[in-house]
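Hi all, posting the design record for the shared folder.

TITLE: backbone redesign
STEP: 1 of 1
STRUCTURE INPUT:
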């Protein structure tokens, strides 16, 4: 059994102590097999993603020809000037008879009324003398590896929290010693919260890279000379409503029953994509103001009800609800 490593715990703890956190909700936009970063132009893509943010999400989002804020007519996010797209794989329940059902998301703590989706954070140092450079139009990045099935540090950081009770309990502030880097093995009646963290340093030149990762890196005690520009740390939280699947339906082989859409039954292969789409200089102004979870007068907001109305029909049309004989795309569940 592997918990979060000591170095990972230390880094994640630094995110919530002495930092400002712009925290907001983004309701569900669409769930489908598309990935315009890793598999641009492919419809359907390899596996299912849950997507939030602006409704300009598309099969191909070439930054040379696609102006995301201009193409978007609405966003699912609390801040109405944020047309960015945020996505992760969808989670499925695997019943003892071998069939699969997509796990719905829950509104996170403090966001009652939001239609599932994700909670998005932009983290900045509390020290206003530290310069934070907001992302530029065309910026995108990926964190994590969908093929990963064992714990190893490769720059990706995922954190799982099992809520055994209602109302997000237990839920200590920050990072808990009981958080894991893998899908919880016990029954989580109140849901499973998954957090994924993006890098904090940019090379200052490239808005993207061939693997969508090399232009950014994690900074420890400052940014390295190869990536000298400090950027906001983006991270996502998604709460999955795992409690609706009774233990009587769990597999008899003792394995926990939840799998990511790409067939990962361990949790180590969780990953996330980010495409910047804020209007004008709104994000930079919010970062300069060191906005936090209490609010941000620099940004325009909208109600959960308004955000919930922003939806997109599937582009890659296929049934994803109800019981399925296989994972969409015929992905095979693996543990190694």
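Okay, here is what came back for every position:
SEQUENCE:
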């Amino acid at each position: 059994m592997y918990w979060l490593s000591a170095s990972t715990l230390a880094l994640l703890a630094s995110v919530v102590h002495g930092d400002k956190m712009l925290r907001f909700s983004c309701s569900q936009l669409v769930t489908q097999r598309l990935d315009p970063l890793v598999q641009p132009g492919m419809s359907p893509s390899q596996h299912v993603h849950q997507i939030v943010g602006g409704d300009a999400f598309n099969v191909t989002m070439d930054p040379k020809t696609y102006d995301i804020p201009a193409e978007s007519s609405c966003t699912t996010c609390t801040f109405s000037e944020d047309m960015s797209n945020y996505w992760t794989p969808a989670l499925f329940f695997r019943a003892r008879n071998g069939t699969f059902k997509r796990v719905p998301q829950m509104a996170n703590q403090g966001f009652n009324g939001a239609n599932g989706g994700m909670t998005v954070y932009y983290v900045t140092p509390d020290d206003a003398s530290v310069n934070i450079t907001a992302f530029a139009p065309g910026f995108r990045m990926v964190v994590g590896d969908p093929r990963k099935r064992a714990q190893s540090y490769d720059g990706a950081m995922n954190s799982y929290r099992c809520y055994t009770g209602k109302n997000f309990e237990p839920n200590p502030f920050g990072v808990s010693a009981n958080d894991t880097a893998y899908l919880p093995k016990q029954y989580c009646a109140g849901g499973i919260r998954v957090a994924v963290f993006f890098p904090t340093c940019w090379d200052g030149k490239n808005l993207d890279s061939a693997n969508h990762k090399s232009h950014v890196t994690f900074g420890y005690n400052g940014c390295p000379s190869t990536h000298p520009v400090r950027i906001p740390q983006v991270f996502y939280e998604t709460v999955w409503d795992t409690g609706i699947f009774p233990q009587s339906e769990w597999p008899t082989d003792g394995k926990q029953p939840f799998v990511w859409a790409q067939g990962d039954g361990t949790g180590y292969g969780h990953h996330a994509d980010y495409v910047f789409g804020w209007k004008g200089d709104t994000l930079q102004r919010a970062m300069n103001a060191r906005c936090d979870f209490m609010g941000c007068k620099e940004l325009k907001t909208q109600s959960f009800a308004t955000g919930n109305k922003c939806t997109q029909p599937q582009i890659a049309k296929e049934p994803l609800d109800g019981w399925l004989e296989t994972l969409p795309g015929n992905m095979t569940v693996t543990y190694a």
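COMMENT: Helices lie at 6-16, 68-71, 282-288, 304-309.
Let me know if anyone wants the other runs.
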